[in-house]
Structures are given as C-alpha cells and as structure tokens.
Amino acid sequence: MVVRGEELRGYLLLTEGRSGSSWLGSLTDSTGVMGRSNEWLSPRILGSSMKAKSKIEYADAVIKAASTENGRFAIKIFPRHLFAFAERYGDDFVNVCRVEHDVSVFHLERRDSMRQAVSLLRGRQTKQWHSGRPSEGKAEYDFDELARCFFYIKESNSFWRSYLELSPDLQHQTFIYEEVVGDASPFMSAVARQLEVELPEYSSSYQIQRDAITEEWITRFQHDLLTKSPLMSYDRRKEFRPALKNVVRLLRKRLRGDHPFSFT
Prior knowledge:
Helix content: 40-55%
Number of domains: 1
CATH class: Alpha Beta
CATH topology: Rossmann fold
Number of helices: 11
Number of strands: 4
C-alpha cells in the first residue's frame, strides 16, 4: 500500500512509442510484484481532474497508480510526458521522483526507426496500440505522415540521449528492443534487482504486430523518396484557430504554442 511520505522503490522507463515498451511492461505487470507499467504522466490516463492537483499531489497520484501492493512502481515516460509535466508544474518529474523515492532509470530504444515509424503511423490511424486491442480505424499508406512519424521518432531518440548525457548524476542502463525481443531476461533481471524482488515467472499475451503491410509500406516509401521530398512533412505546427478564447489570449500575449513533442 502506498503511503504519503514513504520512500518506495521503482523504475522509470525512458522511451518513445512503438519501441516495445508496452510488451516489456506486460512482462513486468504479469509478475504482480514489479509495479504497474503505463504512461502514467499522460494527462489522459489519470483524467482531467488532476489539473487541480499540486505538483506533489500529482506526483503522488502517479506513484500510487503505478504501484503494486508491495510498494514497487513502474512508469513509462515519453518525451512529451516529461514536457507536459514541466509545462504544468515547472519541474522535471524524473528529479521530483528521485528526491522522494529510490528510483532506477532504464532507457529503451529501437534501432529500426523506419519500422518503428510505420508502427506509430498505423497505431495513430487504427488506435490499435497492442495486439489485444481491436482496431478503430483503417490503416492507409501516407507518405507525408510516415515521414512525419520518422522525424518524430528520430527527435525523441536524440532527446533522450542528450537528456541523459546532460544528467551525469543520473545513472541509467540502456536496452535495445531488437536485443530484448529475443531475450527479455537481462531487462527483467535488472528491474528485479532494482525493486529488490525475487524474479518470478513472467509472460505476455502481446504479439508482434509487424506484418506484410509493414514491408509493403517501407518499400513504397523508399520508392516515393526518389521523387518526393520529406521536407514539408517535418512541420508539426498546428493551425491557429480563431476561437474567442484564443483571440483574447493572443491580444493579451498569452497564447502559447504546444510544448515540444506534442505530436497531434
């Protein structure tokens, strides 16, 4: 049970979508003693009611949601989650968490950015973020959107590398998706050591979603690159909507753009 003021043990997984983080989280979740992995910093996960919470109250709510009964927690963090927290509270959640609890940081990256981009685009189109969830839309090849996803993933990977390099006191361990997908035991053992639990049996019902469509899109994209430029796909700015509240904010010079990595 999570009690305010109690130092807990947990791990933070710094990564980006479609990196295999949900699958790894399903493995740790299956043990019942290694926290409850999710994107707990995402406002949509804990609900809009969290807007009224203070920084510490919000952080406590995140830890509580991420914890199993033995007081161990697991939090998956994408760059946009970190910036959303900083935008609201003016602080770095990683540091806030480390002050209060015994935390280890793991960094997960996928080498094959192209296939990761295809997976991201398909997820955005269908909302089928893992194999156990039904599709809510049709996956359709789109050159500009695929290039946009590729740029986005590359930026996220670069951000985490730079963030960790600029945090010399932040000890971390990096795992590569293409390596752990064949053998997850090094990751699971590292988490077990941090959480100080015996490594129990673990399993996952998740299945790799990569299929013939993935390869078809990659081939088509590579062919399109011979005649098309991805330059304009890079621009992720949102169109200004002339709603009354936005006009007022603009006149008061309070209209702010989206925080970095707010991919919409």
